[in-house]
Here is the input.
Amino acid sequence: MFLERELNESIARNPVAKSKKELRRALLETRLQAAREPLANEALRQRVNEVLQRCTPRCVGFYWPLDGEFDARDALAAWLAEDTSRVACLPVITARGAPLEFHAWTPQMPMRVGEHRIQEPASGQIVMPDLVLVPCVGFDDQAYRLGYGGGYYDRTFAQWRAAGTALPHAIGIAYEACRLGELQREAHDIPLDAIITDAGSYPRGT
Here is the structure.
């Protein structure tokens, strides 16, 4: 697609901004434009379905979509409908600066407004996912992710690791237009297992 190619080439030519804040702002605008492309969303929907089939999870954590984020709810609802033993869950922020909890979700479940005005399940049922779909603002070829800067997923994975909990398979979801050559990395940054986009997966071959 012409728009997606132009956006991606523009970002790739300018991989380093003056700050993460400025880079994040540029990528958020790029993502908003990419998210308006029906073909890109259909391609991402297919890739989410492929991940669910390949990884065969029993409990999937995903996210309530914000502006510009791919909406995975229909894919998860269809996945749940195929097997009543399956569980889907959404992240819940219990306090700013705290790790996330994941609470069970179904398409019919009542929702409530949580921290940062993000919708969260009213179930209150804490579950542990074995696959987590993680939204990305930007990413690079080695599956390093740029998020919103709150550090919630980093803290959550770090807490699970410190507790000796088996880590879930972590798959980022992004638009190809938001791919960078290489993100600036800090010592605590850990790549996701893979990132899927409307054009492929990263690292390539995953």
Observations:
- Residues 45 and 103 are 23 Å apart (CA to CA).
- The mean pLDDT is 91.
- The first helix runs from residue 2 to 13.
- The chain has one domain: 2-202.
